[in-house]
Design brief:
alpha/beta, two-stranded antiparallel sheet, Glutaredoxin, 16 helices, 7 strands, about 375 residues
Length: about 375
């Protein structure tokens, strides 16, 4: 009877994931504040990992299956979380819950899926659905966030788009990295034009978080059009334009920012980046040095000095600055775009960049670009 109920739960999980409202009731067996149930599961090689191995560090458990469309999405997102926060102490374990007593064919499908995912954190096989039952998993995939004391702080079932930012925020909270967002201006106290602009601006931020950059840019442009005196949308649009290597439009947008924005560090970084695009390296270096001295703990100035080093061909020095910047500010889309532009020019010639492995390690997506060019050159010219 127990075996039947577990398999029935697994079979119904896909249907349940559209019925579960967000994180409430995501798992039957655990809730925020409770101790995470212990488990001992083997990875594909047979090595057993226990929950106690996570003790002392914040962590996350991801329950997933090969037949759940959103499982691949959540694992890809957690691959990025591992890249950003593993050095900050985040531990991640993925638990496959495809079914009890897998036959040879299904087991091979699971193992093939694990190989294709190439995850940098442990992947365990819950073949008897013991952890599945202990946690009361009701949807594929599900995520459980655990603090350093082994207590559950957050659960999410089904991985809906609307709650993915909430999951990320809860990961940052257990790591002690969460920064409370600024409280929005009360709409009743601001003009109608500003309230409309705020609506478009907030939509743009949400689209950015989902990786929908083109749609986000349109939302920021609409916000700026509604209220030209509101400089936040112009700055965000300029960041996107620089990431897309459109410095001319970025400069036009930044010139529209109000005088109260001049002392903002993100704006100063963008202005320094524009100087680099124009070839004014010395002026850019002065801007980034001032920024670093003013706010040494933010990373903006160090990222900029790394870009200056690259533009001068001083790769070793550039790498040192970028490593310092990465420790303070792991995400910098403008720096990634500049690095992409720098490396692409070298790879297009079929050459290797100095210390490129170290540079690519900062932004793994650049490794995929490098592999593409390598394959192109290795294939040789097309047959006549």
């Amino acid at each position: 009877m127990a075996r039947f109920s577990r398999l029935t739960a697994a079979a119904l999980a896909a249907a349940l994931c559209v019925l579960i409202p967000g994180s409430a009731g995501a798992l039957k067996g655990v809730a925020p504040g409770a101790k995470a149930p212990a488990f001992a599961l083997a990875d594909p090689s047979g090595k057993v990992l226990t929950l106690s191995s996570l003790a002392g560090s914040p962590g996350a458990i991801v329950f997933w299956s090969t037949w759940s469309p959103r499982s691949e999405e959540i694992l890809e997102d957690f691959r990025e979380y591992h890249r950003l926060y593993a050095e900050k102490g985040l531990r991640i374990v993925a638990v496959n819950i495809d079914g009890e007593n897998l036959d040879y064919r299904r087991r091979q499908e699971v193992l093939s899926s694990i190989d294709n995912l190439r995850l940098p954190f442990p992947v365990l096989l819950d073949e008897n659905l013991e952890a599945f039952a202990a946690y009361g998993v009701m949807a594929h995939p599900s995520a459980v966030v655990i603090d350093g004391e082994g207590s559950v702080t957050y659960t999410l079932g089904g991985y809906p788009l609307s709650l993915r930012e909430e999951l990320r925020d809860n990961l940052l909270k257990v790591l002690g990295l969460y920064v409370e967002p600024a409280r929005p201006e009360p709409l009743a106290d601001i003009p109608i034009a500003r309230s409309k602009a705020l609506g478009h601006y907030n939509l743009g931020r949400r689209l950015m978080a989902k990786g929908q950059m083109r749609q986000a840019l349109k939302a920021f442009d609409r916000a700026a059009a509604e209220d030209p005196s509101y400089f936040e949308p112009a700055i965000m649009a300029a960041r996107l334009d620089l990431s897309a290597e459109n410095p001319a439009r970025a400069e036009t947008l930044l010139k529209s920012a109000g005088p109260e924005a001049v002392n903002r560090n993100d704006l100063r970084f963008l202005l320094g980046s524009l100087l680099l695009y124009k070839g004014k390296t010395d002026a850019a270096e002065k801007t980034f040095n001032t920024l670093r001295e003013k706010s040494p703990g933010e990373g903006w100035g160090s990222w900029g000095l790394g870009l200056v080093g690259l533009s001068r061909g001083e790769t070793g020095e550039a790498l040192e600055w970028m490593k310092r910047a990465y420790a303070l500010q792991p995400q910098n889309a403008e720096a990634e775009a500049w690095l992409r532009r720098h490396l692409t020019g070298i790879w297009l010639r079929g050459e290797s960049a100095p210390m490129e492995d170290d540079l690519v390690a900062l932004f793994p997506s650049l490794g995929e670009l490098r592999d593409r060019y390598r394959r192109m050159f290795n294939a040789g010219p097309p047959a006549p």
